[in-house]
Amino acid sequence: MSVTIPRRQLFIDGEWREPLHQKRIPIINPATEDTIGDIPAGTAQDVELAVAAARRALTRNRGRDWPRASASLRAKYLRAIADKVMERKSELATLEALDCGKPLEEAAGDVGAVAGCFKYYADLAEALDEKRTVLSMHTFKSHVVKEPIGVVGLITPCCSCFGCWMCGCVKAIRIGISFAELCKEAGLPPGVLNIVTGFGTEAGAPLASHSHVDKVAFTGSTETGRKVMTAAAEAVKPVSMELVGKSPILVFEDVDIDKAVEWTLYGCFFTNGQICSATSHLLVHDTIAKEFVEKLVSRANSIKISDPLEEGCRLGPIVSENQYKRVIKYISTAKEEGATILCGGGRPQHLKKGFYIAPTIITDIDTSMQIWREEIFGPVLCLKTFITEDEAIKLANDTHYGLAGAVLSMDLERCKRITEEIQAGITWVNCSQPCFLQAPWGGRKNSGFGRDLGEWGLDNFLNVKQVTEYVSEDQWGWYHPPKL
Prior knowledge:
The protein is of the alpha/beta class and 484 residues long. It has helices spanning 44-59, 71-87, 89-100, 104-125, 163-166, 178-185, 200-209, 222-234, 257-269, 289-301, 321-336, 370-373, 389-397, 412-421, 454-459; strands at residues 10-12, 15-17, 24-29, 34-40, 132-136, 140-148, 151-155, 170-174, 193-195, 215-219, 239-242, 248-251, 281-285, 340-343, 360-363, 380-386, 401-402, 404-408, 426-429, 444-445, 448-449, 462-470. The strands form six sheets. A seven-stranded mixed β-sheet has the order 14-15-16-13-12-18-19, sandwiched between helices. The chain has a six-stranded mixed β-sheet with strand order 9-8-7-10-11-21. A hairpin with a 3-residue loop joins β5 (132-136) and β6 (140-148). The protein is globular, with a radius of gyration of 25 Å. The N and C termini lie far apart (94 Å).
């Protein structure tokens, strides 16, 4: 398939701009290792322009053009953007597959979800104009209004935090640039969206610490998240964090093994294993472990690994050479520490180029091993067995992370107990990885805090204001008038 990679600029104040230092970052197709284009490398000076544009958009016409505009007006823009996304669904999905190695079918599903997200939040946004009365007396009336938090700096590898616009905030972000073109076509006012691509130290850090950014939302590693929080703390600005995970999937003895095997594979190898919620800690009841693992390895070995644009691809390459080397290092270290590789563990024999790693399942693991403790962010599944429910819960929670978890069992009372005891922001019952626009997404512990999606994704970007009115015609009467 021949695809033209558009040459993009930074998107600031509704216009395309070259980065001030004229630097660019090469785009490598992870399936072929070929350079297929480049993107601008923004720096602190470009961030300064973007934040200034966002601040102007926030205050233009005393806020009436965006933050104080009716929610129905903002919803109109969101629906227009959704329509633009769907018009170019095929093109956007192909660009995504070329850029990060995601199988084309998955990428197309993601693009459709982006459009659905904008439509969903357009509907939610229209309710923001309503006032909620909380007190009504003969002397006082109080109501609550929700107002946009202001200029939001999003540091993210993907188009998350949709709630930001719906509340009337404006953005200065690092994100996929093709999205800006759609917003421009949809007529989004200048400065409401500003996109500065670049490296974390050169673009992300100055955005997080900028005094005119009212909130920072970050998606990425826990280590970088700490740095973002430190920078934001200097200005006492709120932050929300979606950080890494190391999520368990508990498989009990009463499952349908074939169904459980498929959900286990999907929970870890979907999106090439490069999803923060991957259920990469597999805990299997000892009494079914032999049969379960035999079927699991057989099914893993049958997964189609290919160029992500090839029909039927179910596992593409790792996103970059650095991440490929990182995953291979994790696997080799596990072997050196005594773990057993049941399948995978390296490059598939039929693929001589590209950053491919076959679906990898590892056993004979001690819980102190690096492969068990740290997020791998690749197609690597770690396996342990358990005998009792208490043992399973203890193993599931023995982690610094708490993004997600899954339990597979026909005993729904047991499932209820497990979901209550797993220390995570998301729990799945008899499945793994489904994500719905209406449900909150986010973690706890070192996996972050704050929520995206659903109504909680709106609350992330809103200030709540109390408005209290004195309605009595009588004088307040606290101070006695002076005697004449």
